[in-house]
């Protein structure tokens, strides 16, 4: 009996050490925990519409932590895999954002945008339309930062008037604020959150003196609605109109967790493997294979490195000379 207890203790200690090591390591291809329900296991993988094992494991761990520590009561949590491409093999927006409700037994994979970055004197950290290579938490970088987030308040603001269904109507967009942790802790300072992937490209000023959005002269901005679903953004997470409505209604006043992959440690590990001529997959590291072949190797820009470059660039810019929009005809 005593020998059996010792064996159980050793096995338990080994498991604790393995899990602790995994939590501190990059994205090694560990098998999923046996406690993941069978219906969810069916959605796990690296194919289209699936969630990679490491992304799910970290998203579940974050959600459980926030249920315990932050009092999260939302039955659903979210995740994003920013290593995936923007377009699927069918030419449609690729699915790389996940809404998982284990209590309800539902899983939904949808499209999402990622940070476009910039190309400025002293540094080119711009991302292409299909795959993200550059990541950062630097202010003004316009880049995605992987890691842990909690959804916060939703703010709705007016963006201009558009023509829709034969009528001229106001376009208001809701922005879901993200609160970050550790490497993402400056998310609010960076104005990072989620919103519908659309904006109004202003064309002229329209007379609308009775509009609550009119300026002192009685004009409002009128323009064309630009939809950039699954494309690039200024670092925020962006969704299609229907997905945006679903997510915001799901979390407004009932916050939940969001885990975005990859973190800086994952990026550094994959970049190191590539630079040394090794296959990341053979090293037990995860990155979407089609995007890795396109970008060569990912790069993480720490804010301590990138923010001084961005500040110097901004300081060198001339004072903008804005001309008023023409009056709509």
Protein structure class: alpha/beta
What is the tally of helical segments? Answer: 7
Which segments are poorly predicted (pLDDT under 50) over 5 or more consecutive residues? 1-25
The fraction of residues in strands falls at 25-35%
The CATH topology corresponds to: L,D-transpeptidase catalytic domain-like
Helix content: 25-40%
The number of distinct β-strands equals 16
Largest sheet: 8 strands, mixed
Q: What's the CATH superfamily, by name? A: L,D-transpeptidase catalytic domain-like
CATH classification, class level: Mainly Beta
Question: What value does the Rg take, in angstroms?
Answer: 22 Å
Shape: globular
Q: State the CATH architecture.
A: Beta Barrel
Signal peptide: 1-29
InterPro entries: YkuD_2 (IPR032676)
Keywords: Signal
Protein name: L,D-transpeptidase catalytic domain
């Amino acid at each position: 009996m005593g020998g059996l207890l010792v064996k159980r203790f050793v096995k338990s200690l080994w498991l604790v050490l393995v899990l602790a090591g995994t939590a501190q390591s990059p994205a090694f291809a560990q098998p999923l925990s046996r406690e993941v329900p069978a219906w969810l296991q069916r959605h796990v993988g690296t194919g289209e519409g699936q969630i990679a094992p490491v992304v799910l494991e970290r998203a579940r761990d974050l959600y459980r932590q926030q249920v315990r520590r932050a009092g999260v009561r939302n039955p659903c949590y979210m995740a994003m895999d920013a290593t995936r491409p923007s377009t699927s093999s069918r030419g449609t927006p690729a699915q790389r954002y996940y809404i998982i409700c284990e209590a309800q037994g539902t899983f939904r994979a949808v499209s999402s945008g990622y940070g476009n970055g910039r190309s400025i004197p002293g540094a080119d950290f711009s991302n292409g339309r299909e795959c993200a290579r550059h990541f950062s938490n630097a202010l003004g970088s316009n880049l995605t930062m992987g890691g842990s987030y909690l959804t916060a308040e939703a703010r709705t603001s007016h963006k201009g008037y558009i023509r829709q269904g034969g009528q001229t109507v106001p376009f208001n967009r809701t922005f879901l604020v993200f609160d970050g942790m550790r490497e993402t802790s400056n998310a609010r300072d960076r104005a990072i959150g989620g919103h519908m992937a659309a904006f109004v490209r202003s064309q002229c000023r329209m007379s609308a003196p009775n509009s609550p959005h009119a300026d002192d002269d009685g004009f409002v901005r009128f323009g064309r609605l630009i939809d950039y679903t699954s494309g690039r953004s200024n670092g925020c997470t962006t969704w299609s109109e229907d997905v945006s409505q679903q997510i915001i209604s799901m979390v407004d006043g009932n916050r939940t967790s969001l885990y975005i992959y990859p973190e800086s440690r994952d990026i550094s590990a994959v970049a190191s493997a590539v630079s040394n001529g090794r296959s990341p997959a053979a090293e037990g590291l995860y990155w979407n294979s089609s995007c890795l072949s396109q970008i060569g190797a990912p790069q993480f820009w720490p804010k301590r490195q990138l923010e001084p470059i961005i500040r110097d660039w901004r300081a060198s810019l001339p004072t903008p000379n804005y001309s008023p929009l023409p009056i709509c005809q």
